[in-house]
Each structure stands twice: as C-alpha cells, then as structure tokens.
Write a structure and sequence with these properties.
single chain; 244 residues; mainly alpha; 82% helix
Length: 244
C-alpha cells in the first residue's frame, strides 16, 4: 500500500502545481491579450506572454499526469470510467493548453516581425492577432467541457469506491454541474471564462480540487477501499466462470 500513498501525495502536489500555474498565467498576461493592441505594445510585453504560455503548458502537462497516475487505482473499481478519465483529462484536455500556448507564442512572433520590419499596416496586424486570439480563446471553453466530463468520471468512481471521503467526491459531482453550464455558455459566446459570472460558477470546483489535493497529501487514499490483487483475481474468475 506504500505505492498508493506515494501516488496520492504526487497527485495532490500535481493538482496544486497545475492550478497555481493556471492562475499565474492569467496574472502574467494581464491585459496584454487584446486584439486592439498595437504590435509595439505586444512586442514590448513579449516576455510576459512567453511566461504566460510556459505557465499554461506547465498547467496542461502537469494535470495530464494525474489521470495516468490515478488509472492503476481507479481501474480496480471501474476500468471503463478509469480509461475514460485518462482519455478526457489525460489526452483531450491537454490539447487545449497546447493550442492556447501556441497561439500566444505565435502572437509574440507576429508582433516582433511587424516591429522589426517597420510595417505600418496596423489593421492587418490586428486582424491576424484577432484570429490567433480567437483560436486560443475558443480552445478554452472546449477544454472546460472536456474537463467537466473527465471530472464526472473521476468523482463517480471516487464516490462509488470511497477512495476519499464521500463529502469530497460528492462535492466534486455537485460542483461540476455549474462548471459545465458555464463552459457551454462560454461556447455559445454569451459570456467568457474570465467574466465574473463564469468565475463564480467555476469557483466551487476550484476549491473542491484544492481540498481534495490537500486531503490526498495529508491522508492519502482510503486503503481499505482498494481491492487486493488476490481479490481482483477472484472477482475476475467469478465473472468469467460458466454459469448454470
């Protein structure tokens, strides 16, 4: 069971690192991500955008490791949902931060090229930057939807298995509902992920994941809820034994 204790600690730490990196990426970019900004303004703040892109990549890659580490534990209870969690949050969701970071880095290169060549057609630059930003911002709500579906799979297994206290996993199942609604509203263009309303709807999930992360670091998984290898073998034999 020592392996599961280490896994719980690493997963908790990765959750915290990923969340902090995501928050810092917003702080780092500030008001730079505005299609109306001139090439000179964006070029002058290139380091902030690059830092923001690196933080977004850190968030995406760090959180992508969580489902991989969790899979051996979750599959003992529900292999289908465990694999779905890996696909949604370990693979599909990781694409979104990559797209966002690439769009920011491309914007930096574009602004620097305009400044270095002394181009005067700012309208063309603004059209190009708007396109790059739209690609990035479109990936955000799509990532939020993928995140929500992955979270539903994770907390369904957690609630069923009692790997963590049910008040934490139940909190996750409830918190994902406003999160998913906010994501769909963002996709429809009725608001955006940085609006006050969306932030309020995302907040319960943010707090829940940090509470779960701390719990995993301090307490770990409920080892009594993890079937032994022999028990797993017995269950498998029973399932495939001839009936009659």
């Amino acid at each position: 069971m020592k392996t599961y204790r280490i896994t719980a600690i690493v997963v908790g730490v990765l959750y915290i690192i990923g969340t902090v990196a995501g928050i810092l990426s917003v702080v780092a970019t500030g008001n730079i991500l505005d299609a109306s900004n001139s090439p000179a303004e964006i070029s002058a703040n290139a380091n902030q955008l690059i830092l923001g892109a690196l933080l977004v990549l850190t968030m995406g890659l760090t959180l992508a490791m969580v489902p991989v580490l969790m899979y051996p534990v979750l599959k003992k209870h529900n292999q289908v949902l465990a694999m779905g969690y890996v696909v949604f949050r370990g693979a599909l969701e990781t694409v979104m931060p990559l797209v966002l970071a690439i769009s920011w880095l491309a914007l930096v290169s574009l602004s620097q090229a305009y400044v270095q060549t002394g181009a005067t057609d700012v309208s063309a630059f603004q059209a190009s930057s708007a396109l790059l930003l739209s690609i990035g911002t479109t990936s955000v709500p799509l990532g939020e939807i993928v995140f929500s579906l992955g979270a539903l799979m994770l907390y369904s297994v957690m609630f069923q298995s009692r790997l963590i206290p049910r008040w934490i996993s139940g909190w996750g199942l409830v918190a994902v509902i406003p999160y998913l609604v906010a994501a769909f509203v963002d996709v429809l263009g009725l608001t955006n992920s940085e609006s006050a309303i969306s932030s309020l709807m995302f907040f319960p999930m943010l707090i829940q994941e940090m509470v779960m992360a701390v719990w995993l670091i301090v307490k770990g998984f409920n080892t009594a809820a993890i079937p032994s290898e022999s028990a797993q073998t017995d269950i498998t034999r029973y399932q495939f034994a001839p009936q009659g």
